[in-house]
Amino acid sequence: MQESYGIGGLEALLSNCALIATPGLGMDTEYACEPTIAAIQKRIIAYLSDVEQLREDQKAQIFRNSLNRPKFTLGKMCESYIDVWQELYKKLQKEQQ
Hints:
The chain is 74% helix and 0% strand. By secondary structure, the chain is mainly α. The chain has a domain at 2-49. It is elongated and about 60 Å long. The N and C termini lie far apart (54 Å). Mean pLDDT is 68; it is low at 1-5 and 18-31.
């Protein structure tokens, strides 16, 4: 059950790419990152279809070890996202003056 929530969450994230895009990278275009998302989804589906390899990787804690880095924490990602928007806001204020 827990794995399905993870996959569902990942799929939701990937399918909503335009909503979380960084300013300046096609936010105003209609799903500018969709081709990349489709490619990532295909790779994920292919990987998840290989149950034997998936179980081996789970036992070896491949996923946990690859994500156990300070730069991948939710706090760091939020800080980065906020910084981008603050810089954009400052730039817009300067242009209005």
